[in-house]
Design goal:
The protein is an alpha/beta fold. 35% of the residues lie in helices and 20% in strands. Strands 1, 2, 3, 4, 5, 15, 16 and 17 form an eight-stranded mixed β-sheet that branches. Helix 5 crosses helix 6 and helix 6 packs parallel to helix 7.
Length: 397
C-alpha cells in the first residue's frame, strides 16, 4: 500500500484489552498505523483513499505461537511424514502459510520443522518470493534419542550434546529454540506424561538461547517434565496437559508463559479412529484431555500468562483454524476479550515482537482483520474473517 488510507466507522478492538471503540478510525500510512481514534472527521490532512467500515468490526490479526507449517493435518501424520522430502515439505509449507494468512493469522511461531525447512520459507517470504504471515522459526526441534518427535528432530543426549544442538539451530538462523521435555501422544511407544530431557539438559539449551538473545519453548505434557523445564528457565510451556498446583505456581512466580494448544487434543478425540487416526494417539488424548482442561482452568484462574497456539499440523488441526483455539479457550472459561488478547498482545509479548505487532496502536505494523460480526458477542465469527490486511495490504494470496 502506498500513501495514506483512512479506515473509518468501524468498532475498534485494538488488542490491548481496552473496551471496544465505536465509530473509530484507523489511519494507515505505507505499512504502519499512523493514528487511531474516535470520529475521523476530527483528523487533519489529506488521504489517498477513504474506506467506510460502518457496521464492521476491526481487530488485530491473530497470532499463532505453535505451528508446524511444513507438515499436514492428516489422520496419521507419522506415516505421512516418513514419505516426504525437503522439497515436498517446502511446497506444503508455502500452501500452509498462505492458508494461515488468508484465514486471519498474520504472525506465527513455528515449533519444529524437518530439515529446518521453516528457516528457508521465512527467508523466501522476506525476499518477496511469496506472501504469508511473519514468522519466528525454531529450525529442528531438539529431542533425546528415541524421544518424542525423534524422527523429525535433532536427537541429542547429555548437556553437552544438547548445547551443541542448540548452537546448531542458532547458527542456522533459529529465532527460538524448541526442546522436548516429555513424551507425547503422536509418537508410538512414548508416554505423554513421561519426562525425557533432564533439567540439566534443558538448562544447557536455555543458556545457549538466552546468551544469543533468543527465547526457548518446550513441548511438555507431564508434571515432572514441566517442572524440570521451568526450573531450567524455559520461556514457554507448550501443551501443559498435566500440571499440578506447584507447577502452576512456579509458572506464575517466574513469568513462564503457557501455550495450551487445546485444539490439538480436541481434534484427535473429536475425529477418532473412525477417521483413520491411530488408536494409540486417540487413547492417549482421551486419557489426558480432562487433565488438560483442568490445567488450563487453574493456570488461568491464578493469572499465568496464556498465549494462543494450535499445534497446527496435528490430525485434522488445519492451518485455517487458529480461531478454534479461541473458541475452545472460551468454552473452558476465558472471556471473549481475554481470548482475543491472548491471540494478539500476549502472543506478541511471548514471541518478542510486541513493539511492532500484536495491537492496533500508532507506529505498529498495520496487520488487521475486518469482521462482519462482533467477536465479543460470538468468538466463533473469527473462524470466517471478512478481510485480512497484512502491513496495510489487502491479502490476495
Amino acid at each position: 500500500m502506498s500513501g495514506r488510507i483512512l479506515f473509518k466507522g468501524a468498532t475498534l478492538i485494538d488488542g490491548t484489552g481496552k473496551e471496544p471503540v465505536e465509530n473509530a478510525f484507523l489511519l494507515v500510512e505505507e505499512d504502519r498505523i499512523a493514528a487511531t481514534g474516535i470520529s475521523a472527521e476530527n483528523l487533519v490532512g489529506e488521504y489517498d483513499e477513504v474506506r467506510d467500515l460502518s457496521g464492521k468490526y476491526l481487530m488485530p490479526g491473530m497470532m499463532n505461537c505453535h505451528t508446524h507449517v511444513v507438515m499436514e493435518p492428516v489422520a496419521d501424520m507419522q506415516s505421512f511424514a516418513r514419505n516426504q522430502t525437503s522439497v515436498t515439505h517446502a511446497v506444503r509449507g508455502v500452501a500452509n502459510l498462505q492458508k494461515l494468512l488468508r484465514s486471519g493469522t498474520t504472525f506465527i511461531r513455528d515449533m519444529g520443522s524437518p530439515f529446518a525447512v521453516d528457516l528457508g520459507l521465512k527467508k523466501c517470504m522476506k525476499e518477496g518470493v511469496f506472501k504469508g504471515p511473519d514468522m519466528f522459526c525454531s529450525g529442528k526441534m531438539i529431542t533425546m534419542t528415541g524421544g518424542h518427535g525423534w524422527m523429525f528432530g535433532r536427537e541429542a543426549d547429555g548437556p553437552d550434546d544438547v548445547r551443541k544442538a542448540a548452537r546448531e539451530q542458532l547458527r542456522a538462523g533459529a529465532d527460538v529454540i524448541k526442546i522436548m521435555a516429555t513424551g507425547g501422544v503422536l509418537t508410538p511407544g512414548v508416554e505423554p506424561g513421561s519426562p525425557q530431557f533432564t533439567e540439566e539438559e534443558i538448562r544447557a539449551a536455555v543458556e545457549e538461547a538466552h546468551k544469543a538473545g533468543k527465547k526457548t519453548a518446550t513441548h511438555a505434557q507431564g508434571t515432572t517434565g514441566i517442572k524440570n523445564a521451568i526450573r531450567a528457565g524455559i520461556d514457554s510451556i507448550e501443551h501443559g496437559c498435566i500440571m499440578d498446583d506447584e507447577a502452576i505456581e512456579m509458572m506464575l512466580e517466574r513469568g513462564t508463559c503457557f501455550v495450551p494448544t487445546l485444539a490439538a487434543v480436541f481434534q484427535i478425540i473429536d475425529n477418532g479412529v473412525e477417521a483413520g487416526i491411530p488408536e494409540y494417539a486417540v487413547e492417549k488424548c482421551t486419557r489426558i484431555f480432562d487433565h488438560h482442561l483442568e490445567s488450563f482452568r487453574k493456570a488461568r484462574q491464578v493469572g499465568v500468562k496464556i498465549a494462543c497456539g494450535t499445534d497446527a499440523s496435528t490430525p485434522f488441526n488445519g492451518f485455517d483454524k487458529t480461531a478454534l483455539e479461541l473458541v475452545l479457550m472460551t468454552r473452558a472459561g476465558m472471556g471473549n476479550m481475554e481470548a482475543i488478547v491472548s491471540a494478539t498482545r500476549v502472543s506478541a509479548e511471548l514471541i518478542g515482537c510486541d513493539e511492532e505487532y500484536g495491537t492496533l496502536e500508532k507506529g505498529k505494523f498495520a496487520d488487521f482483520l475486518i469482521l462482519d460480526k462482533d467477536p465479543l458477542a460470538d468468538i466463533s465469527t473469527l473462524l470466517e474473517v471478512g478481510s485480512v490486511y497484512k502491513k496495510g495490504e489487502l491479502v490476495s494470496c
